[in-house]
Write a structure and sequence with these properties.
Layout: H1 8-17, E1 18-28, E2 42-53, E3 60-63, E4 68-74, E5 77-79, H2 81-84, E6 89-92, E7 98-110, E8 115-120, E9 127-132, E10 154-159, E11 165-168, E12 172-174, E13 179-182, E14 195-198, E15 201-209, E16 212-220, H3 230-248, E17 257-262, E18 269-270, E19 275-279, H4 290-306, E20 314-315, H5 322-339, H6 345-360, H7 376-381, H8 386-402, H9 404-418, E21 422-423, H10 425-436, H11 440-447, E22 455-462, E23 468-476, E24 483-492, E25 498-508, E26 512-514, E27 526-529, E28 538-539, H12 543-552, H13 559-574, H14 580-590, H15 597-614, H16 620-637, H17 643-655, H18 659-670, H19 682-694, H20 700-709, H21 713-725, H22 729-741, H23 747-757, H24 763-766, H25 769-783, H26 786-795, H27 804-816, H28 822-846
Parallel strand pairs: 1-10, 7-8, 16-17, 17-19, 20-21, 22-28
Antiparallel strand pairs: 1-2, 2-7, 3-6, 4-5, 4-7, 8-9, 9-14, 10-13, 11-14, 12-13, 15-16, 18-19, 22-23, 23-26, 24-25, 24-27
Helix pairs in contact: 3-4, 3-5, 4-5, 5-8, 6-8, 6-13, 8-9, 9-10, 13-15, 14-15, 15-16, 15-17, 16-17, 17-19, 18-19, 19-21, 20-21, 21-23, 22-23, 23-26, 25-26, 26-28, 27-28
Length: 849
């Protein structure tokens, strides 16, 4: 990986030297089909780049990662590939004022989801291709200047196997000579170019708005077509286009709008203009909850927002990644709640997206939203909870601070002023200052250029009659920020509901802010700081409010307020301020009354984490038993056929370990047991089979029988996960070897094997792999692609060996590898911090005995 890196300084120097006028890329993908699916394969890639020297200097380089280069020609002069190509770069010298470079290369199909990914569908043997580039993998498909500020028009042509269809960013068609040719794009960055090719199932529609007409397309593998609900995808797409046209006052700028759901995808989705790609798991094979459809809708809208924030106007370098990702994350939820049926999108944001941000912002690798990105490895790791969810949270705070109208007018001016160009932080701030009249530089210093999360705690005093004499908000944190926040007062009604009766919105500044508007109000049962979730902070409670939540959390009628309280209680648990067993008790008491399925799913995940990572060792077995008992109880109580029933069924399966629970799962699989209304479809069957495998009640033959029922790509991933989950030393050794010692597995199967290998019920079985992990990771990081490196280093860290000894081993590795790749050290430091946090939380839980 180090030889494939690119530094910010190198990118800046190259941008000062040249201007790119255009690319012509010709790909021959006929080699994608033919003999053995496991054969080493390459495809021909011929790239013509037209560029000008506009700065001083006569030498530069072009990026290309390829097994071989056939020829390089600069301005008609042949260059020796053996001399100028080092495997990642082509060196160019003697540049003219105007240059034409032609590179003929053999590029490799990918099995890791980077570059040109090749997938063979086990169901019908069909081959599917797609590209994925962010931040810098287009150089695996064609030669280019791989940095976001060297935008240029692209013209693609693709020769594909007979019977295939090919798509790219621009509209295209197959000519008489069999070559697919695509319209030239507007100036775009290399990382958002795209090619999708294969026998995809393709559905079309059209978006119309006045004289504007946008062709719409949606596609998936043929074997998934029977599950593909393209109508709902198009519905959300049209609603999103309406919303962004209404609010951005800049017509969608890239012609057509295709959306491809592709296999073995590393990301949620990617915003390639005119050709958005998604992971195909968003094509649901079985019954899922509305929360799943909401997540898909949010992703569709997130990627659509990128057409303006990121594609039309692009950051100069990855330091300002937030200029696209934070805005897209915010706009995804903003448009979701205002334009679609998912009107509670801010509840999901408060409960799920912010949890991601809070975790990331407390790691040693936390960084300002405008980060210091030295190179591409830094950039890859900064697609994190800070850049996405904290950035989006801060933008929500900005809307409260500057006003909705000023915020949206700022966006409109930004697009018109910088269309098809590149920007930095100062460019956006100047526009927002124009529209809001606020000092955006001081706001940016506090919110964008510092790291860490504040905690806001209410401090309340009362008079003899029980009325508030003073309510103050105390702010903790390294950097005390200005918060536009609301404080809500809640009381129990005669009917037993916990409802808000008073609210004040205020500017919280400094260490202590008095909320004068609430003086004189009667004593509340609950004081909720950051009511309505206007700002980004951790919520704390006074003693009375915490006691109320222990007894009445389920009585809060407002779903957003309830979600905020769940999130706050989880933060208390993670911070070692509430025993894990207390969080589990609250969850078991009130989760059954949670009406928002997305919140319920998060509470389930947090409850399992509380027992797995934060509970004292001596209480783990008891905690696991309580979760399984509670899960089964709520499963039986849930309305037959409801989303709640499905959610509790999955939770019960994930926590089952007792013989009688495992027997019930076996009965639900073989039909000898039944729960009224529960449809055990194929996806749920796999969810029931995995715990049976991990507890030794499903062997290889039984797992093979299930694969025979579901011999698909998804079924194969489930099979691999279940096989690796079996409680056998030989199984674990084989799984370890497949992931760490071999690179034959695809990215999807690496992920599935790791998930099966790491089972909380098998701590002792996988303990011997802790020292092997530390011995292997530096070599693995050097040998594998960065995506696989990240997956393995994160996924196999011995977090389940949660002891001071593992912490010491981690510290020893860090001390002995100070010169290791910074990105690798960051991943280990993050895992070390999670482990140290778990040990602190376990100590807190142990004191609760």
């Amino acid at each position: 990986m180090p030889g494939e890196n690119l530094s910010r300084d190198e990118a800046r120097e190259r941008a000062e030297l040249l201007t790119v006028d255009g690319y012509e890329v010709s790909l021959d993908l006929r080699s994608a089909v033919g003999d053995s699916a496991d054969a080493v394969r390459t495809f021909r890639s011929v790239t013509t780049i037209r560029f000008r020297r506009t700065g001083t200097g006569s030498a530069t380089f072009v990026d290309l990662i390829a097994p071989a280069v056939t020829s390089v020609e600069l301005n008609g002069r042949a260059l020796d590939p053996a001399v100028v190509f080092d495997g990642a770069r082509i060196t160019l010298d003697s540049l003219a004022d105007e240059n034409v470079l032609v590179v003929d290369a053999q590029c490799a199909y990918s099995r890791t989801g980077e570059g040109m990914h090749r997938f063979v569908d086990p169901e019908d043997g069909e081959v599917y291709l797609y590209t994925q580039y962010e931040p810098a993998d287009s150089r695996r498909v064609h030669a280019n200047f791989e940095q976001p500020d060297l935008k240029a028009p692209f013209r693609f042509e693709v020769t594909a196997p007979e019977g295939w269809t090919v798509w790219s960013n621009g509209a295209g068609e197959r000519a008489d000579d069999g070559v697919w040719r695509f319209a030239e794009t507007a100036p775009i960055s290399t990382y958002v170019t795209c090619v999708v090719a294969g026998p995809y199932h393709y559905v079309t529609d059209t978006y119309r708005r006045g004289e504007l007409e946008i062709p719409l397309g949606a596609m998936c593998r043929r074997s998934l077509a029977k599950h593909f609900d393209a109508d709902d995808v198009f519905l959300i797409t049209k609603q999103g286009l309406d919303f962004f046209h209404d609010n951005f006052d800049y017509p969608y700028p890239f012609g057509k709008y295709d959306q491809a759901f592709v296999p073995e995808y590393n990301l949620g989705a990617m915003e390639n203009p005119g050709m958005v790609t998604f992971r195909e798991e968003y094509v649901y094979r079985g019954k899922v909850t509305q929360a799943a459809y909401e997540r898909r809708a949010n992703v569709i809208l997130h990627e659509m927002a990128h057409m303006w924030f990121g594609d039309l106007v692009t950051m100069v370098w990855w330091d300002d990644l937030w200029l696209k990702e934070s805005y897209a994350d915010f706009m995804g939820s903003f448009s979701l709640t205002e334009a679609t049926r998912f009107t509670n999108g801010w509840v999901t944001f408060a409960n799920s997206r912010k949890a991601w941000a809070y975790r990331a912002d407390q790691l040693p690798s936390t960084h300002p939203i405008t980060a210091d990105i030295r190179d591409l490895e830094d950039a890859k790791l900064n697609f994190d909870g800070i850049t996405y969810a904290k950035g989006a949270s801060v933008l929500k705070q900005l809307v409260a601070y500057a006003g909705r109208d000023a915020f949206l007018e700022g966006a409109r001016r930004y697009f018109k002023r910088f269309a098809y160009g590149n920007t930095r932080l100062a460019d956006l701030l100047s526009v927002l200052e124009e529209t809001s009249g606020r000092d955006m530089k001081s706001w940016a210093r506090s919110w964008l250029q510092t790291s860490g999360v504040n905690a806001l705690t209410p401090e309340v005093t009362y008079d003899a009659e029980g009325r508030i004499t003073e309510l103050a908000v105390v702010q903790d944190g390294k950097e005390l920020r200005p918060h536009r926040a609301a404080v809500g007062l809640y009381r129990l009604s005669a009917e037993g509901a916990l409802v808000r009766y008073a609210r004040a919105e205020t500017d919280v500044t400094g260490a202590r802010t008095v909320v004068e508007e609430l003086a004189g109000e009667e004593r509340p049962a609950l004081v909720l700081v950051n009511d309505d979730d206007l700002t980004y902070c951790k919520i704390r409670f006074d003693e009375g409010s915490l006691a109320t939540l222990r007894a009445h959390l389920g009585d809060i009628t407002d779903p957003l307020a309830r979600a905020l309280c769940w999130s706050a209680l989880w933060n208390l648990t993670r911070d070692g301020l509430m025993p894990a067993r207390d969080f589990v008790a609250i969850a078991l008491e009130f989760a059954g009354r949670e009406t928002d399925i997305g919140v319920l799913q998060m509470v389930h995940a947090w409850s399992r984490s509380a027992v797995t990572h934060y509970a004292a060792h001596a209480w783990r077995a008891e905690g696991g038993r309580l979760l399984a008992e509670g899960g089964l109880r709520e499963l039986r109580l849930a309305e037959p056929g409801s989303e709640s029933q499905l959610t509790w069924a999955r939770f019960f399966a994930a926590t089952a370990s007792a013989d009688e629970d495992l027997q019930l799962l076996e009965g639900l699989l073989d039909g000898t047991a039944k729960i009224d209304g529960l449809d055990v479809d194929q996806e749920l069957r796999w969810a029931f089979l995995e715990p049976l495998a991990s507890h030794g009640r499903a062997d290889e033959d039984r797992i093979g029988e299930e694969l025979a029922l579901d011999d698909t790509a998804t079924g194969k991933r489930h099979q691999v996960r279940c096989l690796a989950a079996r409680p056998s030393a030989a199984v674990k050794a084989q799984a370890w070897a497949q992931v760490v010692e071999s690179d034959t597995l695809s990215n999807a199967l690496v992920e599935a094997t790791i998930a099966g290998f790491v089972q909380p019920s098998q701590r002792e079985l996988i303990a011997p792999y802790a020292p092997r992990y530390f011995a292997a990771i530096e070599r693995l990081w050097a040998d594998r692609s960065i995506q696989i490196g990240m997956d393995v280093v994160r996924g196999l860290f011995p977090a389940l060996q949660d002891s001071e000894e593992t912490l010491a081993a981690t510290d020893a590795w860090l001390a002995a590898h100070e010169s290791a790749a910074p990105a690798l050290r960051r991943l280990v430091l993050e895992a070390r911090d999670d482990l140290a946090r778990a040990l602190r939380a376990q100590a807190c839980d142990g004191r609760a005995r």
